Amino acid sequence: MDVTVEVQSEDLHSSHSDVRPLIHDRDPKRVNKSLKVTFEDVIAEPPSVRSFDKVWLWSHALFEVSRLWCYRFISLLLAVPVSLAAGLLFAVLSCLHIWLIMPCVQLLLINMHWVQTVWGSILNILISPFFTSAGKCCGRITILLSKDEDRHTQTRAE
User: Where are the membrane-spanning stretches (predicted)?
Assistant: First the structure.
């Protein structure tokens, strides 16, 4: 959600801010671009078979109204609890990442520098020559793909 912050310049020592969410564009990063479902995406009549015009208009209206109001009702019930749970989950994950995972990774990287050196030496001495040789052996292999269907069908027939 994009948030605008306007700082009042009346008092230089206070940090009074007016935070107002932007409600016009609620999906600015286009996360839910696949959910732009309209009536025509779901229900369509071919030109050969058609219902009465009033049936088409009423079904279109009922589809749009039921989709809108069902979404509003379900979001009324679920938006706040799901937002709370997502906020708590992201807060816990952020805290674990910042205060537990990254310090442990940095500690390992600092204290295990000798392992990086030994592992790099093992790769350079044992494994790198094998893959270099395999690459040189297979480097001259060429594959030609053609779209000649007549030749392909003749090969099958023989």
Answer: 76-102, 114-132
Per-residue buried b or exposed e for 102-112, using 16+ beta carbons within 10 Å of the residue's own CB: eeeeeeeeeee
Spatial separation of the C-alpha atoms in residues 132 and 90, rounded to whole Å: 45
What's this model's pTM, rounded to 2 decimal places? Answer: 0.48
DSSP-H helix ranges across 27-139? 39-42, 53-96, 102-111, 113-122, 128-138
Write the pLDDT tens digit of every residue in 62-85. Answer: 999 999 999 999 999 999 999 999
For residues 2 and 22, the answer to whether their CB atoms sit within 8 Å is yes
SS3 94: helix
State how far the Cα of 45 lies from the Cα of 119, in Å rounded to an integer: 66
| Residue 23 structure tokens | 């409600």
The rounded distance, in Å, linking the Cα atoms of 133 and 21 is 61
CA distance 37 to 67: 10
